[in-house]
Write a structure and sequence with these properties.
Chain lengths: 328, 361
């Protein structure tokens, strides 16, 4: 594999305050150029924290971070001031879950896109506006010229999310971070936005990290999936590997409890218990208290990601993986 | 048996009589024009057609799923049935008795027989009551002595899988989302109701916890002979959980039928579109085309004729001229749809195709 666009090594994030929480615990992954990684997990698993860390969006006073993040040749952890501003939105940009909150309600959508372009590039206001219009057309907003002068409240949810994507693409980022971009949308609108993201990614050749708790949405857009639990990646691999041959008991449980074809007269195979408390993670595997396969080793030692038989890139962090490890 | 349970309505009409029938339910909300500038002339008064003539019946012991996009009126329908808001028109008949009408059932008795569980588990609990107090509150308000109400609350906590000695004294913020939703279910059961309205009750829960709560709801239904109205936007869950499914669009029921009929042989183009908008779980077979373009339309002043025609691939001239009727599609009279394509008398076959810019071809 050629040099990845994004490489994350041993990322740790702890929040301090009334309660201390270990939100990320040694997260490492790579993202190739033009690749779409689906980051899957439940609330509190660390998926959104990972995205925000990639843009350094956490309040510095209450956050302790360690590890390495490299995007292209940029060392993100070392970025400060003007360089950080240029990196955010220029190299990497984010689509948030709620576009109603992400836009400033007092400015038109067009003004906000133009402002972003002018902040990053030395071009005239007219050229910036022409680019904004082109972006609005690209994300398939009908009557784009008129919508450029609309305020966010004048748009429907699906339209605002398209405008949010246009804003994120304004400076042609190499890395697009999408944080549950379709969760708040109706199913009929969600599929439109998913297809749009897939199309834009293909046309522009961006790398995308797509965070979601919805396995179906992740399968629709991703090349590769990483499953998070308790602030760690517990399994990663191609979409087909993870969805059809899960190696980690948590992934298997999550897939089983996502009702697709369970016969109606049968109880759902639910995972017992509740997601872990990030303020008091167990010393071993975070999933051990809910896991049917857990042993003494699981409760004492954190398993590392290791390759599974059949595909070197299919890796799981489990002492009792459901597939054979490649180097057993 | 306590006074509370005696006053609950026992089964009267037998299994053949529907537990609840809803007839001609209608609710229009006036649109408040901004009155900040008094000299600006106001336009004609407009109305949100939230629920516009909804008829259906729920049989005893069945689960009726209600699906549709946001703004289709599914939650308003639930609130009208629970009488949390008053309907403009329409009637409710509960096990043969008219609700809150002359000679019928008193509203207080009706409400005791029907309880609701909402999506937001935190907002539906009083933050200043412990979980035991929250569950015991309703029965006490209806006259059960405090000691008995507490005992019932503790028994219900245990039944929904929360140890009373551990959770009874906790406040809402000390519980996780899944635990809070269990408490809400326990509270709804405190009256021994016969009908439970679940309005997106599992939507906010993580998948692994959602499965636990769905299993609990199934067990409780069997144990207590409950009837559910299950409102959800998750079509997989509705398929698993419901016996019959009702599809709503812009304040109207467009199709209703057994779950197999809706998922296997839908007869309304909107139902088919809605079902094919569900993401594929198979990476080798991803969705290639969106079944519907655009957003759900605004329920303010919906189009004349068929309300779905602007987004429908099959729309023809007749769809704009005439509102389609709800027609039975099977001999058993269980599957109904509101579409001219199923109506030989509508003139659909001879009608010209409509120019339809928004429909995906």
């Amino acid at each position: 594999m050629s040099k990845p666009l994004l490489s994350v090594r041993d990322l740790n994030v702890r929040f301090h305050g009334e309660r201390n929480a270990s939100a990320l615990n040694g997260v490492s992954f790579d993202l190739a150029e033009g690749e779409v990684l689906g980051l899957l997990g439940e609330s509190g698993s660390g998926k959104s924290v990972t995205l925000r860390t990639l843009l350094k969006l956490h309040p510095p006073a209450r956050t302790r971070m360690s590890g390495h993040i490299r995007v292209g040749d940029t060392d993100v952890m070392a970025l400060q001031g003007r360089a950080l501003e240029q990196y955010r939105g220029g190299m990497a940009s984010m689509v948030f879950q709620d576009p109603g909150l992400a836009f400033d309600p007092l400015y038109t959508v067009g003004e906000q896109i133009v402002e972003t372009i002018l902040a990053h590039e030395r071009i005239g206001a007219d050229a910036a506006r022409a680019r904004a219009l082109e972006l609005m057309e690209r994300v398939q907003i009908p009557q784009a010229r008129r919508r450029l002068d609309a305020y966010p409240f004048e748009m429907s949810g699906g339209m605002r999310q398209r405008a949010m994507i246009a804003l994120a693409l304004a400076c042609r980022p190499k890395l697009l971070l999408a944080d549950e971009p379709t969760t708040a949308l109706d199913a009929t609108v969600q599929i439109q936005v998913l297809l749009l993201l897939r199309e834009l990614q293909r046309e522009l050749g961006m790398s995308v990290i797509f965070v979601t708790h919805d396995i179906g949405a992740a399968v629709e857009v991703s090349d590769r999936l990483a499953v998070m639990y308790g602030g760690r990646i517990v399994e990663e691999g191609s979409v087909a590997d993870v969805v059809q041959r899960p190696a980690h008991p948590y992934t298997a449980g999550l897939l089983a409890s996502t009702v697709v074809d369970v016969p109606r007269d049968q109880a759902l195979p639910a995972i017992p218990g509740a997601p872990p408390d990030l303020a008091a993670l167990p010393p071993g595997c975070a999933f051990a208290p809910r896991c049917a396969h857990a042993s003494a080793q699981c409760r004492e030692q954190v398993p590392a990601l290791q390759a599974m038989e059949g595909d070197e890139r299919h890796r799981a962090a489990c002492w009792h993986a459901l597939l054979q490890p490649a180097h057993a | 048996m306590s006074a509370l349970e005696q006053s609950a309505v026992a089964d009267r009409g037998g299994p053949a009589q529907p537990l609840l029938s809803v007839k001609g339910l209608q609710k229009h909300f006036p649109v408040r024009e901004s009155g900040a500038l008094p000299w600006v002339k106001k336009g004609p008064a407009r109305k949100v057609h939230a629920v516009d003539g909804v008829d259906f019946a729920v049989a005893k012991g069945e689960t009726l799923g209600i699906v549709g996009e946001s703004g289709c009126g599914k939650s308003t329908t639930a609130r009208l049935i629970a009488r949390l808001i008053d309907a403009d028109q329409g009637s409710l008949v509960f096990d043969g008795e008219g609700v809150a009408e002359f000679g019928g059932m008193a509203l207080k008795d009706y409400r005791r027989n029907l309880q609701m569980v909402f999506q937001d588990s935190f907002a539906s609990l009083n933050p200043r009551l412990t979980m035991e107090e929250a569950i015991a509150f309703g029965p006490r308000a209806h006259g059960l002595p405090a000691r008995e109400a507490s005992a019932r609350a503790r028994a219900l906590l245990a039944r929904v899988g929360l140890a009373p000695e551990q959770f009874g004294g906790r406040y809402a913020h000390e519980l996780s989302g899944g635990q809070r939703q269990r408490v809400n279910i326990a509270r709804a059961l405190a009256f021994e109701p016969r009908l439970l309205i679940l309005d997106e009750a599992v939507a906010a829960l993580d998948k692994s916890v959602q499965a636990q709560v769905l299993n609990l709801l199934r067990e409780l239904k069997e144990e207590r002979g409950l009837t559910y109205l299950f409102i959800s936007h998750d079509l997989h869950v509705v398929r698993y959980f419901s016996d019959r499914v009702m599809v709503m669009y812009l304040g109207q029921v467009v199709e209703i039928g057994a779950v197999e009929a809706i998922y296997g042989a839908a007869r309304h183009p909107y139902t088919s579109a809605l079902l094919s908008a569900v993401p594929s779980m198979d990476p080798a077979n991803r969705t290639q085309r969106s079944p519907l373009a655009g957003d759900p339309p605004n329920p303010i002043d919906p189009p004349a004729g068929c309300r779905f025609r602007d987004r429908c691939v099959h729309a023809r001239a007749v769809c704009a001229e005439q509102a389609p009727r709800m027609l039975p599609l099977d001999a058993g009279g269980r599957h109904f749809a509101r579409c001219h394509m199923n109506d030989l008398a509508s003139g659909y076959a001879s009608s010209a195709p409509a120019a339809n810019p928004e429909a995906v071809q």
